[in-house]
UniProtKB/TrEMBL annotation:
It comes from the Bacteria. Residues 14-34 have a biased composition (Low complexity). InterPro entries: CE4 (IPR052740), Glyco_hydro/deAcase_b/a-brl (IPR011330). Residues 1-69 are annotated as: Disordered. Gene3D superfamilies: Glycoside hydrolase/deacetylase. This is Polysaccharide deacetylase. Residues 1-13 have a biased composition (Polar residues). SUPFAM superfamilies: Glycoside hydrolase/deacetylase (SSF88713). GO terms for biological process: carbohydrate metabolic process. Residues 35-62 have a biased composition (Pro residues).
Amino acid sequence: MTTSLSLVACSTSAAGPGSETATPTTAAPTAAPSPSAPEPTADPVPSPDPAPSPDPEPSPDPTPERAETNVPMTRLAPGEQPPQFIIFSFDGAGWHDRWQEFSAAAEEVDARFTGFLTGIYLLTDEHRDAYTGPGHAPGRASVGFGGSPEDVTTLVEDLNGAYRAGHEIGTHYNGHFCADNPPGAGDWSTADWTSELDQFFAFWEGWREINMMPEAQELEVPASEVRGGRTPCLEGDWEQIAPAWAEHGLTYDSSIPGSGMAWPTQQHGVWEFAMQSTASPTLGNVTAMDYNFWYKFNQAQDQPERAGEIHDAVLETYRHMYQATSTGNRAPVLVANHFNAWSGNAFNPAARDFMLEACDDEGTVCATYSDVIAWMELQDPAVLAELQSRPPVY
């Protein structure tokens, strides 16, 4: 792919740290940011410059005990049907209440999910100047920073707990710069993407030093466990991003808009889990992401009085996607979300309810991207090729 990853970019507020809204710029936005931290109350103070981490290494501390994968790591026999995978993911991944809500739901049905962390959520508002987005001034972003030291500590606790439970943390990069706040991700060069990932991993490994919190607990998740992500607003140029992915050891991406629901393939050295589209019985043809559902429903207008109606339309869409794949090509279903409370909190409860409804069905496994990749790489190449050759379903 040699053009922008995004079909159409979403708009986010450029008002400054702590501000985050979504305003569509065209008829079919593809993504939107997650809830942000509180507005900063003081000017940023100088932060220590962490050493860049272009090649993330595991933490020197012992890896914490972690729940085993829920994916049956066995080879299929020729003609045997694969598990019906469902992959839940959440962009931003910086909201404590949502971590608690989805972790509890996942435990109930033995599900795993992936949180794509916005790296600047590891920076307190006071030390936001540690981040410089490509082409932007230090301390600026289209989303909020991490809030208070207590807020950042809570986030680290959430990430540690999620990792121990078998969930996955990926990257949503840092400043969420999109087409509405140029230069956005669609404008960035390989050097810009390399800088963005360098800073993400520097925050990951050096957040205590940067925030001057030496006594805070460790982030127990090894940096090497961050294996993929989703770009801001699904924007970016594949040819420019791919070298940065390779330099940082990333093995998958879930940003490029796809057609229907199909098995992932390897492109430019990574597994590409294309953003899916579906023929929703309630919303029509739509990219399968929460913000797109919202835009298709009512042009992303905040109508909390219609939250129940939106919830039901989204849940029916997930059920349709599940039915289409489980009776069709058996491709993994991607439930792509943000931690949010849009339009009266219509969307996250729909994802939670679908998780509780589907993830303990016989033959269905709600898994992380990395675990699905491990399963695919275990298969006989001929068997995997047959799965990948199956036409998309809608």
